[in-house]
Structure formats: structure tokens, C-alpha cells
Write a structure and sequence with these properties.
- Chain B: It is found in: Cell membrane.
- The structure holds two protein chains of two kinds.
- Chain A is α+β, with helices and mostly antiparallel strands.
- Helices cover about 50% and strands about 15% of the residues of chain A.
- Chain A is elongated, with a radius of gyration of 33 Å.
- Chain B has helices at about 5-30, 40-50, 60-85, 100-110, 120-125, 125-155, 165-190, 220-230, 250-275, 275-305, 305-310, 330-340, 355-370, 380-395, 410-440, 440-445, 450-465, 480-510, 525-540, 545-560, and strands spanning about 200-205, 210-215, 405, 410.
- Chain B starts with a helix and ends in a 5-residue tail after the last helix.
- The chains are: A alpha+beta, B mainly alpha.
- Chains A and B meet through helix 8, helix 9, helix 12, helix 22 and helix 23 of A and helix 14, helix 15, helix 17, helix 19 and helix 20 of B.
Chain lengths: ~700, ~575
């Protein structure tokens, strides 16, 4: 069976993250799609652009009729042309945004190759199987997956352990361990078992696997309008109706004194007044927002979740791996009186020789670095005392001595007798500073303590400060005791912490925050995180986590990097800001358009209204045409902004509002004055008006 | 413009802001049921109506109760107007109104518009004035305030249904707020020379040897509530320009204060109800900002005078005095024109038709902007809150959160209802005006040709749909066409806004109230005040620009060029 996917879409996504916004193939494809999207039945979902299309058709008919009757038709044709371009630019924007996603979907589809699964006939006998196409597997069936096989569908490992290459979905080619029970039991269809075997219970019906969902998400096929998008659509539709009334009634009002303006002119006025800019770019902004998330290797189950991310007030972050560097590291050897530091170090090294945990490794590394002690190979005949949850002690029995290290209280109990007061004081000091003390003993004699410390990742403090400025409280969740938690919290600069946290504690904390009217985001991977993930407004599950956690959350991070939650929040905010900024810009544009078109329309009835032509536009025809052209071109000009999102730097709401109002509000008032004037000058230079 | 003119304006506006503070707090106390010095009287009403004042109502029950009470009020008033010829207190023997006129008048007074297609002294009996119009002046005002209280309560707490009890609100506002204030103001007006009498009109022999009929009537107290309740319907035909209705600069000061006092104070009442007074001050600042800006433009335009007169060298140094009373002058006439249109009052102390084009444009625009500056009693506040929601929705996105106001998220439903409310004014003003501009039966009523004639038509529908009630003048409005269409504009302008606004109150009330943080869009800062003003201008005003360009703006430019029609 050819099982190795030749292509790693995850890696492709990473490569694309910093890449060009649009490339040749995407643009060419988008141009074609833009024309297909002109179908009024599809366009009716977008009221502003739909009205524009209806008006375009009307003016086109009038232009053709005028030409057929031998009347002047060039002006009408010009208006009709630019109205059509307005519609086309809007559909192009959407097509371009979809095109970016489609490129990724195509690469994902290659991973979803047809596989033959080994369907187990009896759950307890893995030698008895028959081939079955992956697309015909039903939920609950058991399949055997052996080294070299592609996992046929999403499922839960019920038996066995295997290393799996999940590059097809995560882009990370280092294999990960998947085993039954525990928090690493979920497997994804389309990923490859590299060694050993597992029995998998299928949990997803054909067509609704993780990979399928991922494809439809990035493609935009499953895209539904988000709540905020719907609300904005209603606002835009309402404004369209208002301006429709304002323009239609002009027929009567202008007849009071003189002739009503021609249909082409009224059409031009209508289309420039209704919010075509944001109407044309709205869906592109939404698609691009999801796309940005995918490029960060985060999959959201809905656009709703991305919007909610922008609203989050409280971030629950796991200490380990998010705030601190995964594991504790040795940071000091503290001897009891009468023992040298080196003696403690040597005993610590020997007791840790067989200790494969990161803590144990860090003790060896620290001893080498600080005291130049090279760890010897495990001697012949050494007896390893493994760490157990009951004894909480580990070590090594060598011919020349028995070396032990372990939790302070556990080791002291096993030694019997009183520890020196100095040792007690040292241990307390370590715990207060947020570290973990371990006791070290040789042949039943206490030598001293090892200080293990949580190392806070660099740059976290600045990020928490930035979040605080955005009005987001950060809460550290840890299994440590209060003392330790408080010390690390202070060092990292988080606002609050939950110490000795159980899954129930997390759930209770989230409920309490929500009752106070806050929106909460959290990260989780284990099955016991599932209730809290489901309760949180934004739940980011880790790809390495359990199926239960992945189902409960509304986003999955394929890189399993809990720090990502912060980026997710920023992407959510950027999406909303982009929408608001372009809406404001679009509406603010109307002021200048009035100054261009109103004098042009009414100057025949009242020549004195020419005084309103503050831009000094050449003629009524050139003024109207310039406004329409500006209105169309501004959509194209803003496509990159819509796809990329407006620049966003964390700041308080007041500062953000001031900045964006200045740029997009005042800028929106000023820009068209300049743009329309330039177009008018060009039209005159080109002899077109 | 003169320093003394500005001093007069500043005195009145200063007084309004100063009284808004205690009045706003007091109204909040009345709304909360904490004022009870007439508890026995209150209980009498509840017992008579079988009402439990403590029982809260959802938005539907509240709205239905309001509509029912208004419908009864309308029918009662319609009957009185039709039958006034056979009803008592009719010393002048005035006959019943025609069906068209009675419909128009009854709609007008139930909707707090007080558009008058009749003249009080010749068209109404004392009974109609007292039992008909004055009663509606109280009820339409307390209806508006009650609705505003209901909407305010929706913002105050999270996830509730209860918007208060309509009947209790109606009784309390009338009993504790409007009646005492009207009583006080009425007495002051009597002291200032406004008649309050049931005697027949007086026949006087003039110096020239002719006879003159001097109308009288129970005017003072009706005038008091007409101003306090932003009703504006004059006891006499020429309203507060009449020497009996508004005899002196002092009565003028009192009345001008009364026009603005309650609508502005309600902004602060809102602040008290949502337990954040800064929010109330922000709304008040926007309202007051527009009033001051409007007065500045009108005053400058009127003081500048008529360019044609200036060119002919006949202009008075005081500016354009045509249609203005010398006892008020340009400054106080300008202030009144802006206050009465900004506040949806509609009483006048000068002839708007005779203002300069720009001086006439501002009052028209003040109404078109939605009657929220500060708007009618109650209706101004709920209209303003609709704009606040739209402002928060558009610009709130720019802080990177889905928009919220006072912890209430603004979603699709809220935007839809807010847009429905905003749609009403352009639809009925521009729609009817466009038809009237080409329909011979309508154009026959219009006095002037050229852009000024269009302004007259535009103003009539603006005044009707905006529930303002002031007349530009120059339009013969007592015709079946205008009585009916303006009547419809008034009805839809009132209830077409109220129903979506109350649905909005229901939707907002049901939402959880979210906590604020530094990431929350601030709605009390100068920046927000400026933003809200901009949104009112753009969402409330842009759609009227083409029409205004054809009316007052064209007239202004044409006049400057020395042309007349």
C-alpha cells in the first residue's frame, strides 16, 4: 500500500504564512470566479452589491436603448461600465479571499487518499480482519492499523501503542506517540503509523472527519455568516434602503422646479451613496480572518468562535509549557552543615543517573555546568530504584553506596530522625521563591537539597502587560501549591492564579467569571479538561490531546502550543477592527461624493448650486463619472487591506478608537475629495469628459 | 449678533442645564417609585384600573398597554372635536371640526406632535381646549417619558424581562413630575400676564372707532404643559408669538426654559437609572452641543439679514426682523426656533417662513436629524439611544470587540430594530414630500414658487413625521390631502418608531450585562461625544442632503445671487 503522503500541507501553510498576499494563479482564478459570482441568485445574499447589480443592468439597458435610438449614449455607457466594474471588483475581492484558502484545501485533499482499512471482525482478536474501504467505515467499528498504514479515519486508540507521523495535518514530521488510555489516545484520519500497531475505534462518519472539516473550513464552503457579520449586513441593507428612498424621491422633489435628473445620474448617485466599499469587502474580510488563523495552524470550528476570541476578557493559561518552559530545572545544590556542595552534587548526579525525566536530565546538566561533574555511564550491577507515586523517591544502589533523591517529606520519613534546622530553612526558602526542593541522601544520611525551579519563558511579562492594556486578565492555572504559584505568578506578571487546580476548580472559576459578565478563553488537552473547554467561550484544544478535548473546544491548535491562545485573541480583534474600520471609511466617503454629485445634478435647475462644487470638477458629467470611478476603484485599492487586516497593536480601547477614528473616519472624509479630483483631472487630460 | 443677544441665549441655556441636574435625579426617583407624597391619589387610580403597580411588564405587555391607552385617548379626543358644538363650555358657539380636520388634530395631540391645521381662537371651544387638548398634552408627554424609562431600565441590569409597569409609570410621571411643574409654571405665566379665564371673548372699541374681538380662555395652564411636555400646540393660532400666550421677555424665558428642561434632564435620568451618571452627561453634551451650534448658525443668519434688503439699503441694523416680534428680537427668536425644533416641541414665537434660508434650514434639519437634540420628552431620549446603539455598533468594532453599550452586546436583532426606527423619518418625510411636490391637489396649497415653496412642503412633512408640530408657514394645510398625509406621517413617525424601540428594549433587557474593562469601548468620553454627533449627522442627516440642497440651500445661493421667484 502506498501510504506515504508526498505532501505536507502543514508545512506548506507555514511556508505561506509570510508569503505574498496574492500570486498570479490565485488572481487569474479569482478573476474567473468573480464573473461566475455575478449570478444574481448568489449575489442576493449581499444586499448592497445586489442593488448595485440591478442598477447596473438598468443603466446598461438604457444605454443600449439610447444607442439604438441614435441618442447620445456615451455618458450612460460610461456610467454602466463603471457600475459593472464596481460589482466585479466586489465579487473579485471575495473570490481572491477564497482562492487563498483553496490553495491550502487542495494540498490537504492530497492527504485524504483512498485507503483500505483492516476492519476487525472481533474486538478481542486482532488477527482476524478483512479489508474495507475507508469511506465505508462506520462509527464504532474497530480497525487495526500497523506500521506503514494510514489511519483510515478519526478515532480513539483502544489497544496498543504506536508512533504516528501527523505531518499531514500538523506539518510537524517528528512522530508522536499514540496509545490507549490517557490523554494521547486520539488519532486523526490521514496520518501515518510509523512503528508498532494500534487498534482504533472509529469516531467519525465518512465525510465528517477532521480532515474533511479542515478542508471545507479553509475552502470557505462551510462558511456561514457570523453573528456580527449578519448584524453588519443588516445595517448596510438598512442604509441602502435609506439612500434608495433619498434618491428615488429626488424624482418628485426635483420636479418642483425644473426637470428631474436622468436615470443614469440617479443610479450613479445611489451607487456612490450606498456603502459599496464595505459591502464589497465584507465577506472577503471574514474569509481572510479564518485564513489567517489557519496559517497560524489553528482551526476554528466556526467564524463565531473567532469573533468570540476578540471579545475575551479572561485568559486561563496553563503554567507549564505556556508561562514556564515546560519542566522544572535544577538551579542549585544546597548542602546541610558539614557537607560540601560538591558532595551534594555528586550524590544528586548518581541518584539521577537512571532518571529519564526532564527534571533528572536537568540535574545532570546543571552539575556538569556548575561543578564540572560528568555523568558516568550506568555501572554494571547497579540497581535502579524507580520513582513511584507512593514512595516519591528514586535512586540508584551502587556497590559503593545507596543514593536517593525525592520529595523532601517522603525522603525524610524514610530516613527517620530530625533534619537540621538549617536544612528546613533552606527548603522553605526554595518553596517560597516558587521552586521545588528535593532532598538528597547517601546511605541513609541526608546530604542536602536540590533546588528545582520553574523558568518563566522570556518575553511573557511583556505579553501579559500588552494583554492587560487590551483589558484582558490573565490567569495562571497550576497544580502547584499556593506559595509556589504566587511566586511564579508574580515573576511572570499574570493578574491571578489558580493553585492546586483540579479540573473542577477550572470549571468553577470559568463559571464565576462568566456570571460576572466576562468572556473566558482557555487551553486544554486532557479529557478532564473537556467540561471546562466546553464551558469557556473560547476553548482552544491541543491537537495532541484527547478526542474528548478536541470535541469540547471550538478551536484546535495543530502545533499544540498553548501560547497560541494569545495570537488567537489578537486575530479575532484584528478581524473585528478591520470590519469596523472599513465600514467607517465607507460611510465617511459619502460626504465628498455629495459635493461631487449634487451640484452636478442640480446645476441645470439652479446654476448657483455650482458654488457647492468645492473640488472644482470640470463638468457635471466628469464630476459624476469621477465619483462613480472612485467608488469602484476604492474597492480594489482596499482588497489587500481586507485580506491582510488592518495593523493592530495591543492597546486600550480608548487609544485604539482614537487612532482608528482618525485614520478611517477623518481619512474616509478626506480621501475621496482628493481621489475624485485626481480622477476628474485624468478624465479631462484623456479627453474622456 | 450682539453680546446682549448671546447673554440672553446663555442665560436660558445655562438655566436649562442647571435645572437638569435636580430634575434628572428627581425623575429617576419618580421612576423608581421613591416619590410618594400623593400615594392615596395614586392608589385611587390603581384601584380604579385594577392595576398592581408593583407587577413588572415585558416589552410586549408594556407596548400593548401604551397602544391601548393612546387609542382610547385618540378616540375620546376625536369625539370631543367632532361634537364640541353641542358640548358645554363653548361661549363662542364654535361648531364641530370636519372629519379630516378632527382626524388630523386628534392624531396630532395623541402623538405629541401638536400640528395645528386650525386656529385655536376660532376653531376650538374652551371644553375642547381643556378636556381634549390639555389632557392629551399631559398624557402624550407621560407616554413618551414612560417609554424612555422602560428602555433605560433595559440597560440597567442583566437578563431581565421586566421593563416596569406602564400604568404606574404613567400615573407617577403625570402626578409627581408634570402636574406640579405645570402648576408652578402656569402660576408664573399668569403672573406674567397670560390669561386663565372662562369668560367669553371681549368686544373692544378701538381708537379708530371700529370694534375688535379680543380672545380669552384658560390659556396659562395649557401653555405651561404645552411647553413642559414638548407638545407645542398653541392655545391661540399664532402660538407663542401671540401677546396673550407669551406677553413678555420674562414669559418667553420661562417658556423657552420649559421647552428644553425635561428632555435634557431625562438624559441625566438615564444616567441615574443605569447607575453611571457620566453616560447621562455624555448624551446631554451631544444634545446641548447641537442646540448651541444650531443657535449660532440661525442667529448669525438672522442677524446678517436679508441680502436683497441690504442691497436695497433698507435693512435694519438688528438683522432680519420680518416675522419676528420686537419684544423678543433676533437672538431670542433664533434660540426659540432651534429649541422648539430640537426638542420636538413645535411652538413658535416667530414666523419660520420669514427666516433667511439658512435660518430656516437649521430648524428643519434639527427635526430631520431624528428629534433627539434633545427631542421630545422621552421620545428624544429613546431616539438618542437608538443612535447611540448605531454609533457603538459601527465604531465599536474598531476597538476589536463585538460592540456593546453599557455591557449589553449589540447584535443583529438590535441593529435591525434600530435601523427600522431610523428608516421611518426619511420614508415619510421624503416620500410624502416627493409626491406632494408633483401632485396638483397638494401644490395648490403652496404659497411660494421656487426653492422656498419646496421648503414649505418639506417642512410640513418633516414637522409631522418628526412629531414636532411647528409650521413653517406659507402652506394651507387644512385640506383633505394634507390633513390625511400629515396625519399618517404623525402616526407612523410616532408609533412606527415606538414599536421597534420597545422591541429593542425587550431584546436589550434580555441580554446579560457584561463587565467593563479597559478593552471596553468607552461611551462617556469627549471622543465618544464627537463620534455620536458625527453618527447623528451622517446616519440621520445625509439622506436629507439632496432634498435640502433643492430647498433652503438652493434658496440661499439663489438669494445671494440676487434672484427671487
Amino acid at each position: 500500500m502506498d501510504a506515504t503522503p508526498a505532501f505536507h500541507p502543514g508545512e506548506a501553510r507555514r511556508a505561506a504564512r509570510g508569503g505574498a498576499l496574492l500570486n498570479g494563479p490565485i488572481i487569474r482564478r479569482a478573476m474567473l470566479d468573480a464573473i461566475v459570482k455575478l449570478d444574481p441568485r448568489r449575489l442576493v445574499r449581499n444586499p448592497v452589491i445586489f442593488v448595485t447589480e440591478v442598477v447596473s443592468i438598468l443603466v446598461t439597458i438604457l444605454a443600449v436603448r439610447a444607442a439604438a435610438l441614435g441618442e447620445p449614449w456615451a455618458f450612460q455607457a460610461g456610467i454602466a461600465l463603471w457600475l459593472w466594474l464596481t460589482v466585479l471588483f466586489a465579487t473579485f475581492a471575495e473570490a481572491a479571499a477564497e482562492g487563498r484558502g483553496r490553495a491550502q484545501a487542495d494540498s490537504l485533499r492530497r492527504a485524504r487518499t483512498e485507503t483500505q482499512a483492516k476492519l476487525l471482525l472481533r474486538g478481542d482478536d486482532r488477527t482476524l480482519w478483512q479489508p474495507r474501504a475507508a469511506t465505508e467505515l462506520r462509527v464504532g467499528e474497530l480497525v487495526l492499523v500497523e506500521a506503514g498504514d494510514l489511519i483510515p479515519s478519526d478515532g480513539e486508540v483502544v489497544e496498543g501503542i504506536a508512533s504516528v507521523n501527523e505531518a499531514a495535518v500538523t506539518g510537524e514530521s517528528a512522530p508522536v506517540i499514540r496509545e490507549s488510555g490517557g490523554d494521547r489516545s486520539a488519532v486523526t484520519g490521514g496520518t501515518l503509523v510509523v512503528s508498532d500497531w494500534i487498534v482504533v475505534r472509529i469516531t467519525a462518519a465518512p465525510g465528517s472527519t477532521f480532515l474533511d472539516r479542515m478542508i471545507s473550513l479553509v475552502e470557505g464552503a462551510a462558511r456561514q455568516k457570523t453573528p456580527n457579520e449578519i448584524a453588519l449586513d443588516i445595517l448596510l441593507a438598512g442604509m441602502t434602503i435609506i439612500f434608495l428612498i433619498a434618491v428615488a424621491t429626488l424624482v418628485g422633489l426635483a420636479s418642483w422646479n425644473g426637470q428631474p435628473p436622468s436615470v443614469a445620474v440617479l443610479a450613479a448617485l445611489l451607487v456612490t451613496l450606498i456603502p459599496t466599499t464595505i459591502g464589497g469587502l465584507l465577506s472577503a474580510i471574514g474569509i481572510a480572518g479564518m485564513d489567517r488563523l489557519v496559517r497560524f495552524n489553528v482551526l476554528a470550528t466556526s467564524g463565531r468562535a473567532v469573533e468570540a476570541a476578540g471579545d475575551v476578557d479572561v485568559l486561563l493559561l496553563d503554567k507549564t509549557g505556556t508561562i514556564t518552559l515546560g519542566n522544572r530545572q535544577a538551579a542549585g545544590f544546597i548542602p546541610v552543615p558539614g557537607v560540601s556542595e560538591r558532595e551534594v552534587a555528586e550524590a544528586a548526579v548518581l541518584s539521577s543517573l537512571a532518571d529519564e525525566t526532564p527534571e533528572g536530565r536537568s540535574i545532570l546538566a546543571f552539575a556538569r555546568q556548575r561543578h564540572g561533574i560528568a555523568a558516568p555511564a550506568l555501572p554494571e550491577g547497579a540497581r535502579v530504584i524507580p520513582f513511584t507515586a507512593q514512595t516519591r523517591i528514586s535512586g540508584l544502589d551502587l556497590p559503593h553506596g545507596a543514593f536517593r533523591k525525592g520529595a523532601v517529606d517522603a525522603l525524610l520519613r524514610s530516613l527517620g530522625g530530625e533534619a537540621p534546622a538549617e536544612f528546613r530553612a533552606d527548603v522553605d526558602r526554595i518553596a517560597r521563591a516558587g521552586g521545588t526542593p528535593l532532598a538528597v541522601a547517601r546511605d541513609g544520611r541526608l546530604l542536602g537539597a536540590i533546588e528545582l525551579k520553574d523558568i518563566v519563558k522570556t518575553g511573557m511579562r511583556a505579553r501579559f502587560d500588552a494583554l492587560r492594556k487590551m483589558g484582558i486578565r490573565t490567569v495562571m492555572v497550576t497544580g502547584d501549591n499556593r506559595l509556589t504559584a504566587a511566586a511564579i505568578a508574580a515573576e511572570a506578571g499574570v493578574d491571578d492564579f489558580i493553585a492546586e487546580a483540579t479540573p473542577e476548580d477550572k470549571l468553577a472559576y470559568i463559571r464565576e467569571a462568566q456570571a460576572e459578565g466576562r468572556l473566558v478563553a482557555m487551553v486544554g488537552d486532557g479529557t478532564n479538561d473537556a467540561p471546562a473547554l466546553a464551558q469557556a467561550d473560547v476553548g482552544l484544544a491541543m491537537q495532541t490531546g484527547t478526542q474528548a478535548a478536541r470535541e469540547a473546544g471550538n478551536m484546535v491548535d495543530l502545533d499544540s502550543d498553548p501560547t497560541k491562545l494569545i495570537e488567537v485573541v489578537e486575530i479575532g480583534k484584528q478581524l473585528l477592527i478591520t470590519r469596523g474600520a472599513l465600514t467607517t471609511f465607507s460611510i465617511a466617503n459619502d460626504v465628498a461624493k455629495y459635493f461631487a454629485i449634487l451640484p452636478a445634478i442640480f446645476v441645470a435647475s439652479y446654476p448657483e448650486l455650482g458654488a457647492l462644487n468645492v473640488m472644482g470638477l470640470a463638468s457635471p458629467e466628469s464630476a459624476i463619472l469621477s465619483a462613480v470611478i472612485f467608488n469602484a476603484l476604492v474597492i480594489v485599492a482596499l482588497v489587500p487591506l481586507a485580506l491582510r487586516g488592518v495593523r493592530y497593536a495591543p492597546a486600550g480601547a480608548a487609544a485604539l478608537l482614537r487612532r482608528n477614528l482618525l485614520i478611517y473616519g477623518l481619512g474616509g472624509v478626506a480621501a475621496p475629495f482628493l481621489g475624485i479630483k485626481i480622477i476628474d483631472v485624468l478624465l479631462v487630460l484623456l479627453g474622456l469628459a | 449678533m450682539t453680546a446682549i443677544g448671546w447673554a440672553q441665549i446663555a442665560l436660558i441655556l445655562g438655566l436649562v442645564v442647571a435645572t437638569a441636574v435636580p430634575l434628572g435625579r428627581y425623575t429617576a426617583a419618580v421612576a423608581a417609585g421613591r416619590v410618594a407624597f400623593l400615594a392615596p391619589v395614586e392608589r385611587l387610580f390603581y384601584a380604579a384600573g385594577g392595576v398592581d403597580p408593583a407587577r413588572g411588564m415585558g416589552w410586549k405587555a408594556y407596548t400593548l398597554a401604551m397602544l391601548a391607552s393612546n387609542a382610547v385617548g385618540f378616540l375620546l379626543l376625536y369625539a370631543i372635536l367632532r361634537l364640541q358644538g353641542v358640548l358645554p363650555l363653548n361661549p363662542e358657539g364654535v361648531g364641530g371640526q370636519s372629519a379630516w380636520l378632527a382626524f388630523n388634530t386628534a392624531v396630532s395631540f395623541t402623538t405629541n406632535t401638536n400640528w395645528q391645521a386650525y386656529s385655536g381662537e376660532s376653531g376650538l371651544s374652551y371644553f375642547s381646549q381643556m378636556a381634549g387638548l390639555t389632557v392629551q398634552n399631559f398624557l402624550s408627554a407621560s407616554t413618551g417619558i414612560a417609554l424612555a424609562l422602560a428602555l433605560s431600565r433595559a440597560f440597567a441590569s442583566g437578563a431581565v424581562q421586566d421593563l416596569g409597569n406602564y400604568w404606574a409609570d404613567l400615573v407617577r410621571i403625570t402626578l409627581y413630575l408634570l402636574l406640579p411643574l405645570a402648576l408652578l409654571l402656569g402660576l408664573l405665566l399668569v403672573a406674567g400676564g397670560v390669561p386663565q379665564s372662562l369668560s367669553p371673548y371681549v368686544q373692544a372699541a378701538t381708537l379708530e372707532g371700529g370694534t375688535q374681538t379680543i380672545p380669552l380662555g384658560p390659556a396659562a395652564f395649557q401653555v405651561a404643559i404645552k411647553q413642559l411636555g414638548t407638545n407645542g400646540g398653541g392655545f391661540f393660532g399664532v402660538n407663542s408669538a401671540h401677546p396673550f400666550e407669551n406677553p413678555t421677555p420674562w414669559t418667553n424665558l420661562l417658556q423657552c426654559w420649559a421647552i428644553l428642561a425635561i428632555p435634557l434632564a431625562l438624559a441625566l435620568t438615564f444616567g441615574h437609572i443605569v447607575r453611571d451618571i457620566r453616560q447621562g452627561w455624555a448624551l446631554l453634551a451631544v444634545m446641548m452641543g447641537f442646540v448651541v451650534a444650531g443657535v449660532a448658525i440661525v442667529y448669525a443668519a438672522e442677524a446678517g439679514g436679508n441680502p436683497l434688503h441690504m442691497a436695497a439699503g433698507v435693512e435694519l441694523a438688528t438683522g432680519n426682523m420680518e416675522g419676528k416680534d420686537v419684544r423678543f428680537g433676533v437672538a431670542l427668536s433664533s434660540l426659540w426656533a432651534v429649541a422648539t425644533t430640537g426638542a420636538s416641541n413645535g411652538s413658535v414665537n416667530a414666523m419660520l417662513d420669514s427666516f433667511t434660508p439658512l435660518g430656516g434650514l437649521v430648524p428643519m434639519l434639527m427635526i430631520q436629524l431624528g428629534e433627539v437634540l434633545p427631542g421630545g420628552v422621552g421620545s428624544g431620549l429613546y431616539g438618542m439611544l437608538v443612535f447611540v446603539l448605531l454609533a457603538v455598533f459601527v465604531a465599536g468594532l474598531m476597538v476589536g470587540r463585538t460592540p456593546e453599550y453599557l455591557g449589553k452586546k449589540v447584535g443583529a436583532k438590535e441593529v435591525k430594530l434600530a435601523m427600522l426606527a431610523v428608516l421611518i423619518l426619511p420614508a415619510f418625510i421624503l416620500g410624502f414630500a416627493a409626491v406632494a411636490a408633483v401632485l396638483p391637489v397638494a401644490t395648490a396649497s403652496v404659497q411660494d414658487a421656487g426653492p422656498h415653496g419646496l421648503s414649505e412642503i418639506l417642512y410640513a412633512y418633516t414637522s409631522g413625521a418628526g412629531n414636532n408640530g411647528s409650521a413653517f408657514g406659507g402652506l394651507t394645510a387644512d385640506t383633505p390631502w394634507f390633513n390625511t398625509t400629515i396625519g399618517l406621517a404623525m402616526l407612523f413617525g410616532r408609533y412606527g418608531v415606538i414599536v421597534p424601540v420597545m422591541a429593542l428594549a425587550g431584546a436589550i433587557a434580555a441580554k446579560p450585562k457584561l463587565a467593563a474593562s479597559t478593552g471596553t469601548f468607552p461611551t462617556h468620553t469627549p471622543l465618544f461625544i464627537g463620534l455620536l454627533a458625527g453618527v447623528i449627522l451622517i446616519l440621520g442627516g445625509l439622506q436629507f442632503m439632496p432634498a435640502l440642497a433643492l430647498g433652503p440651500v438652493a434658496e440661499h445661493l439663489v438669494l445671494a445671487a440676487g434672484k427671487t421667484f
